[in-house]
Design brief:
Elements (H helix, E strand, L loop, with lengths): L2 H20 L8 H13 L3 E9 L9 E7 L2 E8 L7 E2 L11 H14 L2 E6 L6 E7 L9 E10 L2
Antiparallel strand pairs: 1-2, 1-7, 2-3, 3-4, 5-6, 6-7
Length: about 160
């Protein structure tokens, strides 16, 4: 057995143990995603809010802006502002689980990449949060796409 083979065989159990014990995520094949996630984690925001527009067949040209407030990794408030108004419409507390944290958006992108579906994403140069997310889960279907465009992310006081 060559020295290289012995080294590789010895390293595999150590790598598996590190993943199992430390919960280390294997290096992902998307360097841009990994770099953006590192910037987001480095910002270490325990409370923040972000806004987004979700484009779909029901809101092709002017979707409402949705603002999601997050504290300690949990969505605590959501409000919608229909296009052309200055009035916020709050989401019911019972529905808050349906909204993503920024970490949840990263997981959404990563999951779609792992599934091999069509994904386009861009990230904020400073904080790293996703600026645009487009996922087409099935190229043969119409209406299954997710098209989010984030407008801002800022710390909560």
């Amino acid at each position: 057995m060559s020295a290289l083979t012995r080294i590789v065989r010895a390293a595999i159990p150590c790598a598996v143990a590190a993943i199992l014990v430390l919960g280390v995520r294997p290096a992902f094949a998307d360097a841009e995603l990994d770099a953006a996630l590192a910037r987001w984690r480095a910002a270490a925001l325990t409370g923040y809010e972000y806004g987004y527009h979700k484009y779909c067949d029901c809101h092709r040209e002017s979707p409402p802006e949705t603002t999601v407030s997050v504290r300690d990794g949990k969505v605590i408030r959501v409000r919608h502002r229909p296009a052309g108004t200055t009035t916020d419409v709050p989401a019911a507390d019972k529905n808050l689980d349906y909204y993503w944290t920024v970490e949840g958006l990263f997981q959404l992108i990563e999951s779609a990449l792992e599934r091999g579906v069509s994904v386009r994403a861009s990230y904020d140069a400073t904080l790293g949060f996703p600026r645009e997310i487009f996922i087409d889960y099935d190229a043969g279907l119409i209406g299954d796409e997710l098209d989010l465009r984030l407008t801002a992310a800022r710390p909560l006081p």
